Each structure stands twice: as structure tokens, then as C-alpha cells.
Amino acid sequence: MTHLTVADARRDLSDILNRVSYIGERIMITRHGKDIAAIVSSKDLEMLEKIEDTIDAAEAEKRLSEGKKNAISYEAIRREMGLS
Fold first, then answer.
1. Architecture of domain 2-40 in CATH?
2. By CB count within 10 A, which of 44, 53, 59, 67 is most buried?
3. What is the Cα–Cα distance from 43 to 37, expressed in whole angstroms?
4. What pLDDT digit, counting tens, does each position of 33-53 carry?
């Protein structure tokens, strides 16, 4: 995986987007030597989202199989996530 600083990414954004979209390269953006973000193709993002959905579905199945005694209400989840 290629690592680029924020300044380099800003300067070469068009080239970076071409590399990511046409050859599937994954680019890690760094700031002060620390990884802060990644640029990946839309295909890679779709794959990541499918993996997350699979993990979420497995967790939901596990929770459902544990029975109602361990159930969490929708309202409690919204509060926990700061959505209400």
C-alpha cells in the first residue's frame, strides 16, 4: 500500500484517483507520520460494506438466539449511540 502525506495527496489528487479507480491501488494518507485516512476504489468500499453487513447480521442472529432477557430496546440503542 502506498503512503502519501496530506500535502502530496492534495497536490496529486487527480493522479491518485486514477490509480485507485483504474488499477485498484489503495492509498494511505498520513499526517505527521500517522495514518489518518485511506483512499480506496468504490469496489473495495462495496466489499467492506458487505463484510460489515455480514458481521452485523451475525451479531443480530446471536442476540436473537440469546432470548428476550438480553434484548435491548430500539430507544436504548438510539440513546447509546447519541441519536435521541
1. 3-Layer(aba) Sandwich (3.40)
2. 44
3. 17
4. 999 999 999 999 999 999 999
